[in-house]
From TrEMBL:
Name assigned to this protein: Uncharacterized protein
Protein's UniProt keywords contain Signal: yes
Phylogenetic placement of the source organism: Eukaryota, Metazoa, Ecdysozoa, Nematoda, Chromadorea
Keyword Signal: yes
Record keywords: Signal
Annotated signal sequence range: 1-24
Amino acid sequence: MVRRIGICSLNLLLLTVSFGAVYGDIYEQFFRQTKSLINDAVIAGSKVRQCSCEEQNECIKEMDAQSSECVESCWSGFSQIVTNPQDLRKCFTETDHIVKDFTSCFAFNFDACSNATAESTTQKVDIAKFFGLGFERVHKTMILLGKQLSAPLRKVLTTSGNFMTCLNECFVKKNSKGFCFDKKICQPSLIDTKSKSFSRLCPRLADWKKKGGEICDCSTKAGLTELKPYCPMLRQMADRRSSKKQPSRT
């Protein structure tokens, strides 16, 4: 379940790089939405065994592999807006660690698993419903965003939406006989959090924007010329963020 959040974040990363001025700090927003999605997918009155950390690691690795396969198979859809989708893919290769860092940070900062000898239980979540609600929410957000964009940018957004749909269908198909957590008859405990601030919880990921300008420039060279006007803005965002982190001189 945690890794699926990562798949959404890849699409959201693409959207943020393209439309950062509209969204602002989308990771902070997405983090809050994820907590809401989990609560909405809770099966009232139903408990399940909390996964051991070993079980959770196994499931995250399995779902990570599944999602990576889906990304590769769905990426060709960007041929609708660029001549060579793999050139565009290279622009995001260096940011792949962001997705993995996101899922790891999200899981392991919540005490989601348990290494206790005594077996513990947690509130059960309908995993399929969680995925469905997540996809639906991202889709609605993209529609609202599309209304604010010019026709060329809407085409980029539509293609990103098709990519998201492909990812969703691919991942669901791979787990049609049950998700890893279902097979282990356990789930991570994701209801309670230690922190309300994503930037405080995952400080390394809060700095991802410093790559925004570079990715935008690369994407433009790969054929997404519609993004070119946004690249200077993203570079400025990165410069401001870096300057704030410079130690004061005495």
